[in-house]
Amino acid sequence: MTLRHIVSWKMSGADRETRDAQAAEIIAALAPLSGTVPSVRALSLHRNELFDGDNFDVTLIADFDDADGLAAYASHPDHVAAGAVVKANASGRVATDFTL
What is the pLDDT of residues 53-64, one digit of tens each? Predict the structure, then answer.
């Protein structure tokens, strides 16, 4: 079983340049988690390319063995620290979790 966790964030910046900088900061904070959080099986981050201002700006796609793996990720100190970066830059969040 694989649990897929997808999260997208809307940046709080008023213009594309600011949102690009915020997105880069979030990506830099979250990308290393694939190597530091043992329960992460796969992790990728993507910057929205089309319909700027309408679409969400950054998407994370992460795979775990199960819900316990996702919970371990959520409470891992490196994730908590990265979450502070996300909260400082994001104005909105949507997520979905499902089994592959």
Answer: 899 999 999 999
